[in-house]
């Protein structure tokens, strides 16, 4: 492999696809930030539907990495260009590790998207001109193995980047070698098949038309820079807004009222009466600063006395006849 290569036209459709992928990833991270600061109720990092969304976006992003390797180096590796881009990715990954360690020390990112792209790009070079049957076989093996084998050894952070864990370690982003390098190989396979067909000429002839398409293509060409900068910008906007608006207070109140309403109605009380009862209970919790007791279940004797008195008061509010028996 040398720096000699046959120049290929730039595929605008790939730039547009990258632009769409980076927009999706920015949108997902924005929702993650809103969830973390309690502006929205869903747990974006853990709820199953959000996990599917995140993995789908990641799969597209990594497949495009494979496509880019073939388009850039399939006819001969351009080492100068490769190392320049690779160094940028590595420095970006290092910046993310340092930044997340400072902000989220318990869940800092030590092998996230950019770390994975750096490693996968190096490994992927070996497959841009390898026999296609070999690339397909390796892709199948890399994707399938994590579903067939797991070991507690890989639960530890030093080995978790390989991907055979039983329980994933605590981190805000982890993109392990298995199975995700297999997705890069899928991108390599797809690009090589397309380039060997008449479809390549048709795709190369497509040019962005209109402001939207040109904007997407521009974002696609600068997707790595956007990825590196977008989260600090989002956090710089969302974190101060959270400090000013304190959404966790409203979310905490909503959680309490929803749980109380469900429990109350399960006991046979009508919805309107339960609403009155729960609102009364919320006022008692806030006035007596009992949030920790309510959410942790760690209730002192004094706090239990206060809760019992509040419960009697709120019950009497919806059932006035109880006042006669007190």
From TrEMBL:
Annotated keywords: Membrane, Transmembrane, Transmembrane helix
Domain of life: Bacteria
Residue intervals passing through the bilayer: 12-30, 50-71, 83-102, 108-127, 132-150, 177-201, 222-245
Residue ranges of domain Heparan-alpha-glucosaminide N-acetyltransferase catalytic in the record: 10-232
Stated name of the protein: DUF1624 domain-containing protein
